[in-house]
UniProtKB/TrEMBL annotation, chain A:
It comes from Syntrophomonas wolfei. Its cofactor is [2Fe-2S] cluster. The keyword Ribonucleoprotein does not apply. This is NAD(P)H-dependent oxidoreductase subunit E. Keywords: 2Fe-2S, Iron, Iron-sulfur, Metal-binding. GO terms for molecular function: 2 iron, 2 sulfur cluster binding; metal ion binding; oxidoreductase activity. Binds 1 [2Fe-2S] cluster. It comes from the Bacteria.
Length: 166, 604
């Protein structure tokens, strides 16, 4: 689905939510799909979800805050996930976090003011043999050090400029 | 060895596991496809087949291209190497030497995969097909003997005979607890309620472990086959595979496998004419470590937050939606078809008294050959880390190996001859967990490692019970203080006190084992804690407030390698003359230590 198809309004929410059976056990699946489209969980979409599957809003809200995969704040166009699993940790994931802060001024859980970049840490992406690993949107970068990270940021900054011409 | 179609001369296996894909394996595979189908090589295209396979295991050397039947294994292949491989190896039968594996100990090039020391000592049971088959091809799985065990179980055996065989095999759950799988099945079958459910726990949460990912990605049918056999044994009609949110490739691979299995009558109604109806559904997790705990996982499938419940009654009696449920992890399921096909007595010939069969370990951290290793239970840590893993790189010293994830512990060098199985690991104060082995060298601070695990667990405790929620928080506060040089000697006893309460009073295994990282490091590395508290010094040079670096002028060659690595320009010195660190500038990040080939940079 392209980003244009994900209109952030009640019609867009309905299109996504009504695509699932109206049962409690599909709440996580619905939230995954909403996150994929909007890069966060809009409150109105969660309210609609609660109504649709027939549970109180508080239950959907508690799930949205419990599971790490979901965010109530919009994430950036480019989402950095620094792996902080054990292996990446002892191989220097903190250096990556420092470097991102130095270059973009954001810490874990934060998004740049222009909504271009956001940063999160993840517990382990299963790429331990090529640690430290960095996930940028869906792509895994192996054995990242401070110098490589600078290049990666530059690469995606370039992508940001191109966006205006699309 | 995998089978080959008769008209084929060459079969090329391209590793497309997560590690290799990150290093460009998809581009390698595409280049290979393009090269084979370009016009002037029509003959080649007809006689050569290329497969994108699951993880080959030795991730440190990927991406791999393995050529059969000769068994030529090329390492660190780039897309640009493909024309040469096609031209030289496929057309002229020559080996491209520069792409072969280099055995550093013997200083020789190695051609065949099975001649690489990393592979030679392994026994691949759960990983039997991973790396050999195209996971999206049911045909590949069938050629390797897939679904034969299902046929045997469904058509030649009664359900209770199947359960009996699994009990006899002594198979224990590979997800951490090590509970005998057959007993779970028996209890489930003995509970009268219907419907019954089968769950595959693919929520591989231990940081540092990725064996389940590799099986789901590289051999998804083996998991399905195990689950279908169980469905027959206990009379279940629906199965769920709960996959960790971070494993997108696993979801895709399993989804495809389920469709194929449905199309060929291995799933759905009246499977193989036996009268068994069984369907499998994938549930994607939301990213919560506690969901690896079976009752929390069940709550998550039902559409709740992943909070565990106290197991007065086991899920085998009252599980998903209150119904009898079998829940086993991915690696356990992958073992079932082999046990049914080759028999329990074959399986019990592998392993130790209390732990039968093999175990897959993910060997990572400060070790030369990082990757996935499958060995019989009872193999020693020394064999795995040094003979298979090639030891600690850069000439540094082995310090400890962490096993069992955040619930496990750190095992010191004195215990390297420990035979790895469920019981010996528990006795050593650690646990098997899902099989992560994280090797640590003298640049790893054990206090900081304990702090790391507690901070991990602080974020992952579900918060339902007090001992876990508050205990972890207190331990983390104390450890953080010690790392910052503000620890007191009484802290050590206090931590042991808190740990004991957590072990006895927590609701689920997460809380009961959460203090293991602290207890095991206190047990084996107490000196290092004392060094932090009384000596105000971090011997590994990791805790910044307690570290100071200097360059030994007798060792430094003045090569200048460390100069550009220093982020604060705090290293001074002329080329070919000993350098020095300006201590007022140094932020103790350790970049210079890790870049020095001569180990000239020391911790004061």
């Amino acid at each position: 689905m392209s980003e244009q198809e994900c209109e952030e309004n009640i019609e867009g929410f309905r299109r996504i939510i009504y695509g699932f059976p109206g049962e409690k056990r599909y709440i996580i699946a619905i939230m995954h799909e909403l996150s994929r489209c909007y890069r966060y969980l809009p409150r109105a979409a969660l309210e609609l979800t609660a109504e649709y599957v027939g549970v109180p809003f508080s239950q959907v809200y508690s799930m949205a805050t419990f599971y790490r995969a979901f965010s109530l704040q919009p994430r950036g166009r480019v989402n950095f996930k620094v792996c902080d699993g054990t292996t990446c940790h002892i191989k220097g994931s903190n250096i990556l976090l420092d470097e991102i802060y130095k270059n973009l001024g954001i810490g874990p859980g934060e998004t740049t003011a222009d909504r271009e970049f956001s940063l999160e840490t993840v517990n382990c992406i299963g790429a331990c043999a090529i640690a430290p690993a960095l996930l940028v949107n869906e792509r895994v970068y192996p054995r990242v050090n401070a110098a490589a990270l600078k290049e990666i940021i530059k690469e995606y900054r370039g992508g940001g400029d191109n966006d205006h011409h699309e | 060895m995998t089978t080959m179609n008769k008209s084929l001369i060459h079969l090329l296996l391209v590793c497309c596991g997560t590690g290799c894909v990150a290093n460009g394996a998809r581009e390698v595979y595409q280049a290979l496809k393009d090269n084979l189908t370009s016009d002037d090589k029509a003959v080649l295209a007809a006689t050569t087949s290329a497969r994108a396979t699951g993880c080959h295991g030795l991730c440190a050397q990927g991406p791999f291209v393995r050529i059969l039947p000769e068994d030529i294994t090329y390492c660190r292949v780039k897309a640009a190497d493909i024309p040469e491989i096609v031209e030289k190896t496929l057309k002229q039968g020559e080996v491209v030497k520069r792409l072969l594996f280099r055995d550093r100990q013997k200083k020789a090039l190695v051609q065949g995969q099975n001649d690489i020391p990393f592979y030679r000592r392994q026994t691949r049971v759960a990983l039997r097909n991973v790396g050999l088959i195209d996971p999206s091809s049911l045909q590949d799985y069938l050629e390797r003997g897939g679904y034969r065990a299902l046929e045997k179980s469904l058509l030649d055996m009664r359900p209770e005979q199947v359960i009996e065989e699994i009990i006899k095999s002594g198979l224990r759950g590979r997800g951490g607890g090590g509970f005998p799988a057959g007993l779970k099945w028996k209890a489930c079958a003995a509970t009268p309620a219907q419907p019954r459910y089968i769950i595959c726990n693919g929520d591989e949460g231990d940081p540092g472990a990725f064996m389940d990912e590799s099986i789901m990605e590289g051999d998804p049918h083996s998991v399905l086959e195990g689950m279908i056999i169980a469905a027959y044994a206990v009379g279940a009609s629906t199965g769920f595979i709960y996959v960790r949110d971070e494993y997108a490739q696993s979801v895709a691979s399993l989804q495809k496998a389920i469709e194929e299995a449905e199309n060929h009558g291995f799933l759905g109604e009246n499977i193989l004419g036996s009268g068994l109806d069984f369907d499998i559904e994938i549930v994607r997790g939301g990213g919560a470590f506690v969901c690896g705990e079976e009752t929390a996982l069940i709550a998550s499938i039902e559409g709740h937050v992943g909070e565990p419940w106290d197991k007065y009654v086991f899920p085998s009696e009252k599980g998903l939606w209150g119904q009898p449920t079998i829940i086993n992890n991915v690696e356990t399921w992958a073992n079932i078809p082999v046990i049914m096909e080759r028999g329990a007595s074959w399986f019990t010939s592998l392993g130790t008294e209390g732990s039968k069969g093999t175990k897959v370990f993910s060997l990572v951290g400060k070790v030369a050959n990082t990757g996935l290793v499958e060995v019989p239970m009872g193999t020693t840590l020394r064999e795995i880390i040094f003979d298979i893993g090639g030891g600690v790189p850069q000439g540094r010293k082995f310090k400890a190996v962490q096993t069992g994830g955040p619930s496990g512990g750190c095992i010191p060098a004195e215990l390297l001859d420990l035979k790895l199985d469920f019981d010996s690991l528990s006795q050593a104060g650690s646990m098997m967990g899902s099989g992560g082995l994280i090797v640590m060298d003298d640049r790893t601070c054990m206090v900081e490692v304990a702090r790391y695990y507690l901070s991990f667990l602080a974020g992952e405790s579900c918060g339902k019970c007090v001992p876990c929620r508050e205990g972890i928080k207190c331990l983390l506060e104390i450890l953080t203080r010690i790392c910052h040089g503000q620890g007191e000697i009484e802290d050590l006893e206090l931590m042991e006190d808190i740990a004991e309460t957590m072990q006895q009073a927590s609701l689920c295994a997460l809380g009961r084992t959460a203090s293991n990282p602290v207890l095991s490091t206190l047990r084996y590395f107490r000196e290092e804690y004392l060094e932090h508290i009384e000596g105000q010094r971090c011997p590994a040079g990791i805790c910044r407030e307690l570290s100071e670096f200097w360059i030994d002028p007798a060792i430094c060659t003045g090569c200048g390698l460390c100069l550009p690595r220093c982020p604060v320009e705090g290293i001074k010195g002329e080329k070919k003359q000993a350098h020095r660190i300006e201590s007022d500038k140094c932020i103790c990040c350790g970049e210079c230590i890790d870049s020095c080939s001569f180990q000239a940079i020391k911790v004061k």
